[in-house]
Every structure is written in C-alpha cells, then in structure tokens.
Amino acid sequence: MAKLRKTPKKTVVAGVVAALALFIMGAVFYNRQPVLIVSDSRFNAIYGKQRLLAASLMTQARLFRPVKQALIGGDAGADLVSLAAQSAAKAPYCALFPYRYIEGAVYYAKETPHIPVAVLGGAGQKAPPDEVIFITTDVDADLYRAGRCAAILAQYMADATAETKNGVIVLQRQTLAGDQRQIFLQGARDEGFAGTPTYLTPANAYRASEEIAAVVMLGNNADFLEQNGEAPVILFSWLDPGATSSWVKMIFDDSLWALAIPAVELARKGESGALPSKPRLLNSHIESRELRRLLKEAAR
User: Which residues lie across from 135 on neighbouring strands?
Assistant: First the structure.
C-alpha cells in the first residue's frame, strides 16, 4: 500500500500566513470609509449591468475602499435624494453626485458638512454653491483627442477603399464655439488631416455619403446610428458598448463611474477641476491591430 506523502511544514505555514494576510487585508478594506456614488436605475440600464459591475470592482480595487451606491427615483426631490444618500452610507469618505441631482447634492452637503461632496457635470453648466465641489468634463482635451482619432479613421478608410474619403462630420449636441472647433481641427491636423470638418446639430438631417470617412457624435442621434453603415463613428456617450452598432469604433465616457477615481482625489482635496473623458476602444469592432494601436496612442 502506497504511503501518503506528508505536506512539508513550511508549505503549511506559508498557507496559513497567506490566509491570515488576506483576512487582515479584507478586514481593513471593509472597515474603511466607503465612497458613496449617487445614481439611478435608468442610468444603470444605459450603462450596462456587466460594465457597471466591472467599473465598481475596478474603483474599489484602485481606491482600496468599498463603494456604495445610492439609487434615486427619477422624480425624487432634493430632500429625498439627500435622505437616500444618507441611508446608503452613514459616514462616507466622500460623496459623488451626477449633475442631474445637483439640488440633492447641495441639500446633502448642508446636512453633512463634514463629508466632501462633489458634483460631476459638463462644461458650461452652472456651478453649484460653495458647499459642493464642482468637477467638469475637460472638453478641450476630449475634442483634441477626438480630432486626432477622427483623422486616423479617415486615413484608414481612404487606404482601405483606395478612394477619396477624407470628409469628417461632427454631429453636435449644441453648436461648438470657434475656439473649440479650432482645438478639434488642431488634433486632426496633427494626424495629417487636410480637409475641413463639417459641423451639424442633431436637428440637421444627415445623409450617408461615400465621401464621409469618419463621424464624431457629440450628442444623441439615434436616426444616424440606424442609417449609417460604413463610416466609422467616435461616440461621446454613456451607452453600453455592447449595445452599439459595429461601425462605432470608440466611445468617450465622461460618466461618474468613468471619472470616479480622479474625482475622489479632487473631492478629498476640496478642489474643483476638469477631468478628461475615459476613451474606450471597441476592439471587437476594429479588425486592424495597427489601427487599434494608433487610436490607443492618439487617445492618451
């Protein structure tokens, strides 16, 4: 009968030490003050369940502290928003609110003056009172990077089809100021783009053209996404990448979850500021490895 091998004592000790270390780290983690993020079910549905879970795990790992979410009803008043936030976490490390709940954030900040409270909003939105830290999207950085990426996609389309495809369409949420257009153009120029972008508002009727090589969408335009079938798209959106069409190649995400880690740092310092969106390549929509590399570098 074969003899059973004894497990070396050193191996047993090493296993016990590793288990003890994990237990201590877990205890420290769960006893740290959590970060509170205010959201609602509508946003969560748009963002995507799996994507939300991944963002939560990443944020907790990077900050090494729990993240708790306060889900708000769409028509909740400022007092109810504050109450939901206070119920979700008693003494959070800081609290992050999306701009759509700015009144609730101000109400919450007045009731919990010892907690850093930050509101994340877009550039051009009215700043909240001094009780709340205001963090905006760095539109200039986003437009410059989008310009570079659009130029790369335009050149790729021209090379792939051996045709003159150098037009770039920018579908705007609202009319971009002259200096913002110049920033976008500078990014495109830095990647060798020689054309002139065409700017349209979502209300403008867009029709696919054989000369259009790339599209940058700064606002929702469902009709365009349905009719476009060739020109690659750079999308500024919170939409779950898994729900996008194959011609969407890149998404710029300025959601609270995407910017949570640097937003927490600003909130704890008590500093307002502007943060660039988090770009994401949709690798399953991009066959060329070289194109993925170029877009990744341009989006940094």
Answer: 120, 273
What's the per-residue H, E or C state across 30-97?
HHCCCEEEEECHHHHHHHCHHHHHHHHHHHHHHHCCCEEEEECCCCCCHHHHHHHHHHHCCCCCEEEE
pTM for this one?
A: 0.86
CA separation for the pair 195, 295 (Å, rounded): 19
- Ramachandran region of residue 10, left (φ > 0), alpha (ψ -120 to 50) or beta? alpha
Q: How far apart are the first and last CA of the chain?
A: 64
List pLDDT tens digits, range 34-62: 999 999 999 999 999 999 999 999 999 99
Quickly count: other Cβ atoms within 10 Å of residue 196's Cβ: 11
Query: Would you say the C-alpha torsion 174, 178, 184, 189 has a positive or negative sign?
Result: positive
Query: The sheet that has 133-137: what strands, in order across it?
Result: 67-71, 35-39, 94-98, 117-121, 133-137, 273-275
Query: What is the rounded distance in angstroms from the CA atom of residue 252 to the CA atom of residue 237?
Result: 6
For 160-177, the pLDDT digits (tens) are: 765 655 688 898 888 899
DSSP β-bridge partners for residue 30: none
